[in-house]
Write the structure tokens for this entry.
Amino acid sequence: MSERILVTGGAGYIGSNIAAALTRRPGTDVLVVDDFSSGDWRNLIHVDCEVRALDCDAPELLDEIAAGGFSAIYHEAAITDTTVMDQRFMIEVNTNAFASILEASHASSTRVIYASSAGTYGNSPAPNRVGHGEEPENIYGFSKLAMDRIACRWHDRHSAPIIGLRYFNVYGPGETHKNEKSGNKTASMMLQLYEQVKAGKRPRLFKHGEQKRDFVYIRDVIGANLAALDAPRSGVCNVGSGAARTFNDVVSTLGASLGRKLDIDYFDNPFSFYQMHTEADVSESAALLNWKPEWTLERGMDEYVKLLEKAHRGPVETA
Ligand SMILES: NC(=O)c1ccc[n+]([C@@H]2O[C@H](COP(=O)([O-])OP(=O)(O)OC[C@H]3O[C@@H](n4cnc5c(N)ncnc54)[C@H](O)[C@@H]3O)[C@@H](O)[C@H]2O)c1
């Protein structure tokens, strides 16, 4: 039986990795819908899918969803620049569009898997657990929490599962466009540091590099998304590595992957809001998705740096 799966935001970093992995499943056709505001066509060069330039809540797409045109929907489209402060714009693009997609998917009982974020936790004490400490500190994090709340209201009425994946800090192949489009703001810290070193500079960190984040490799994020296709019920869960690592660790791991010792240039953090410690509790993810993270920072960085050295730009290859 052939399946047709929609990936909104499919020209973006995570969306193109999901689309690429889906096209490798037997009997699966993929439609990527993207407005190309932060995504990039180059991510899709090797992804054999249909592509449409469209808003993710365009009426014709919602009609197609409501008519049962897809067996599942991955909703990755969003404003992903967390420094955008226009509240109305952020809620319109991230939250309102998602509500419209849920309404349309309800009509056809279509499974929806969507991207939430660790930004929903703000600076609450780690480890971060769904249902606890959901106190976002910027409009981006709030727009994602508002999506989770809308999804939870649908859980009992929607006849197909709705699964929210709260990604932590994702890194790995497919994100190079983010730096180009955002003026070096939105790509992972791993890519930023790598590019600094390649430009002959010292890697730059906010003083004094002891901030901790849960960095999750793109292969684990793809794994969680594929597992969500078989999740038996609705829910929201974390997608992280389950470990918090310091920024200094990231630089030393980068140095180990490049085979050299890197001296760090520390500078003052200009942000008044900054997440100082994120760490995903992944116990609910194991229960909901039957999925566990497998990539440590060391393994993920080693593969990522090798691919960057080969100038690999697009999504990672999966079996
Ligand atoms: N990368 C991370 O570390 C991370 C962490 C937490 C959550 N997320 C979430 O994961 C999802 C994917 O993020 P990403 O890192 O791949 O970022 P990205 O910017 O590469 O991807 C977002 C994509 O959505 C598209 N888009 C934006 N608005 C749209 C609209 N109205 N209609 C159609 N397409 C639209 C963009 O052009 C882009 O291709 C987002 O929802 C983001 O909030 C990402």
In short: The two ends are 21 Å apart (CA to CA). The chain has a mean pLDDT of 96. The first strand starts at residue 3 and ends at 8. DSSP finds ten helices and 13 strands in the chain.
